[in-house]
Write a structure and sequence with these properties.
The protein has 403 residues and is of the alpha/beta class. The chain has helices at residues 3-17, 23-32, 34-42, 49-61, 64-78, 108-111, 127-132, 145-160, 173-183, 205-214, 229-241, 256-266, 284-292, 302-309, 332-340, 349-356, 360-372, 396-402; strands spanning 81-83, 119-122, 134-138, 164-167, 188-192, 216-219, 245-248, 270-273, 297-298, 376-379, 382-385. A nine-stranded mixed sheet has the order 1-2-6-5-4-3-7-8-9, sandwiched between helices. It has a two-stranded antiparallel sheet with strand order 10-11.
């Protein structure tokens, strides 16, 4: 076995011995390399009591190197590959997870947030290239029609503009975002919390096959790994740290999607939130996230998202304005005269000037302008408003006659 193969095998074995993100393992690999770290842990030399117990429990269930070798063979049969930091396609941006520290947390899944040791990948795109220009779109599994519509539109629009859409492959918002990107003929990446050969949920199996055909399925866990509950939160740090920003579309009061956005905040990525109806239980978590984190950005569509993650000064969202009206271009005097005219009937110039608060000469000049703009008409020694034109109604008789 070559030195490179031995290192790859060691990384797989380490991920089996301890869950991805374990900081003690990451520190040892950074200091000693994967092979020496594996030897150290198997010899009972863990510097961490919890890690020592975990390694002892796993080694009692099997030989770490044999398990790793089997995982590599299984992946090869699946058409998947192992990507490590030594590979050219490694997404270097996930190194930011080394600095991820969530405040006021005690759960292991919130503390052990180190960078991955490797990724299992199914799909032809280079992983680093796919994630280089990417946005995560996440949200509730029990999404409303509103949320699914927004996620689909965001996925489609981002993919149409050559952004990779990243999500977790779950029901609801995740699936809608993936499908939006696929329908646009764009690139989408599903980051899973289980082995690539047993994607979860199984109801999205056809969707996962579509993603693998044109995009990427990615996991830190070897083939055969089960989708255990803590693994979804472990996975979420990769979605947050591996993309330029995370869009939270819908989230209930207790939602894993808000944890993804939270990890984005603490990795100095852009966290964006789509507002929803205040009466919707599926928007409670999203709204509370906006209240808790002033750095989070409220977005209402693709233009806002592109402004947050795109090039500075180049991807600005257009200002939101109401429909343009003819009176918007008038100066203050002309507008005052227009407002002073009665809704019905005409009014003399002297009275109109007094009512508008302008002198008669100014009134005559501005009224001539308004007349040219077809906004007023001279009538009975005064001026009257021209009502806005309305589309003509076409009656059935007229339609049949013209035919």
């Amino acid at each position: 076995m070559s030195a490179d193969d031995e290192q790859r095998l060691a990384r797989v074995a380490l991920t089996w011995l301890a869950e991805p993100g374990t900081r003690a393992v990451h520190r040892l690999v950074e200091r000693h390399g994967p092979v020496a770290t594996l030897d150290l842990l198997l010899d009972g030399g863990s510097p961490d009591g919890w890690l020592h117990s975990t390694v002892a429990a796993r080694t009692a269930a099997g030989d770490a190197r044999a398990v790793a070798a089997e995982a590599l063979e299984r992946a090869d049969r699946l058409g998947a590959r192992l990507v490590t930091p030594d590979d050219e396609e490694w997404p270097t941006q996930v190194a930011v997870l080394a600095n991820l520290r969530l405040p006021d947390v005690t759960r292991r899944v919130d503390v052990e947030t180190a960078p991955p040791l490797g990724f299992w990948v199914r799909g032809s795109w280079p992983l680093g290239e796919a994630l280089d220009r990417s946005v995560a779109v996440v949200g509730a599994r029990a999404a409303t029609g509103y949320g699914q519509h927004v996620a689909t539109e965001l996925g489609y629009g981002l993919a149409e503009r050559d952004w990779t859409v990243v999500s977790g492959g779950a029901f609801g918002i995740d699936a809608a975002a993936h499908r939006g990107a696929l329908n646009a003929g764009g690139l989408t990446v599903a980051v899973l919390a289980c082995g690539l050969d047993r994607p979860y949920p199984m109801g999205n199996a056809a969707l996962f096959d579509r993603i693998a055909d044109t995009g990427l399925l990615v996991s830190e866990w070897p083939p055969g790994a089960e989708p255990l509950r803590p693994r979804f939160l472990i996975r979420n740090r990769v979605i947050a740290g591996g993309t330029r920003g995370t869009v939270l579309v819908e989230a209930s009061a207790r939602s894993g999607a808000t944890q993804t956005a939270r990890r984005a905040i603490y990795t100095n990525r852009v966290a964006m939130v789509v507002p929803g109806p205040v009466t919707s239980a599926m928007s409670v978590g999203a709204h509370e996230f906006l209240r808790e984190f002033p750095k989070a950005r409220l977005v209402t569509g693709l233009a806002h998202v592109l402004e947050e993650v795109g090039r500075i000064g180049a991807d600005l969202a257009p200002l939101t304005r109401g429909p343009q009206r003819p009176a918007d271009a008038l100066d203050d005097d002309a507008r005052s005269l227009l407002e002073a005219l009665p809704r019905r009937g005409a009014m003399g110039v002297d009275r109109l000037a007094a009512r508008a608060g302008v002198d008669v000469r100014t009134a005559l000049r501005k009224l001539s302008l308004l007349e040219e703009l077809s906004m007023v008409v001279r009538r009975d020694g005064g001026y009257a408003l021209i009502p806005p034109s309305r589309p003509k109604r076409t009656t059935a008789a007229t339609t049949s006659g013209s035919a």
